[in-house]
Design a protein that fits this description.
alpha/beta; Rossmann fold; seven-stranded parallel beta sheet; 14 strands; binds nicotinamide-adenine-dinucleotide; binds 2-amino-3-ketobutyric acid; NAD-dependent epimerase/dehydratase family protein
Amino acid sequence: MVYENVLITGANGQIGSVLTEYLRGIYGSDHVIASDLKFPEIRNGRFEILDATNAASLAAMVRKYRVTQIYHLAAILSAKGEQNPLETWHINMQTYFNVLEAARENGVKKVFYPSSIAVFGEHVGDEAAQWSYLDPATVYGISKSAGENWSNYYFKRYGLDVRSLRYPGIIGYQSMPGGGTTDYAVDIYHKAVKKEVFECFLNSGTVLPMIYISDAMDATIRLMEAPQQKITVRTSYNLAGMSFSPEEIAASIRKTIPDFSIVYKPDFRQKIADSWPRQIDDAQARNDWAWRPAYNLDKMTEEMISELQKKYQAVSKQ
Ligand code: NAD
Ligand code: AKB
């Protein structure tokens, strides 16, 4: 049997804390090495402190564990990134160069690179096609679109099997988001379940592309397990789950929590949201590796509320 050894950077984050468990379920706990800048609150399996801006440490980690796949999640997201653009560029690009080089020099078979709907900008219109023009408005989006091109370059020049998705805003109950423009769509469920008024940093009608965490995990695994010949996009695949506005998610929540209340106080993140498309055309992903989302807004809302209610009840019993 051929074993895979998987290294995850930025594993403590919103996606990493969930993806790590998915990958451990597939490859076995001993074969998945989670890493981040510090230890997580709860440690279930192998974990290493790793600052991915440090090329030597990253390469040493790849050699130490004979890594065959890297999931590179470490990054600074859209809203937080605007607070320090040059530092964000440095972190997002240097970590990715270090991953690509460590992979190339040490025989890593596959690399996963998470891109974002943030690669699109004001000229994309309402719906982003797979090959729409990329004119991102944030340093985060600029770094992601540069990263997509580097992925394609390493594939074409060195044959490195880099695969990538343009995730929409990810919504899940397991973890909290870390500084993006779509974060409101997670926070809103926590406030609803805690019976608090939700103050939304976007206008009521701002429609953005989003995806439920289970669908995001499914798409990631499907992409990474697809046969090489099925992968026709080496920059990054468009990926769609659902699209909705704050007033639509609030209405969906009220079907279960009728007295839920929301107020709108848009801040600097409104401008970022306004630069992103409302819809994503993901036909290429559907055709190439049979991607289909399983969740719509109401189905996601039901699961989010029920899981968060269980979580908060368990905490209150402690
Ligand atoms: P997050 O902010 O929750 O987590 C990022 C993690 O990276 C954090 O735990 C942080 O400590 C770590 N990190 C930062 N700098 C690091 C460094 N120098 N070395 C090692 N680790 C470092 O982000 P997330 O939501 O989990 O996103 C993961 C990836 O997916 C990112 O690349 C992000 O751009 C991408 N993505 C996320 C979303 C989303 O909605 N969550 C959407 C599109 C793309
Ligand atoms: C963000 O809002 O920055 C992220 C993303 C869509 O990339 N959630």
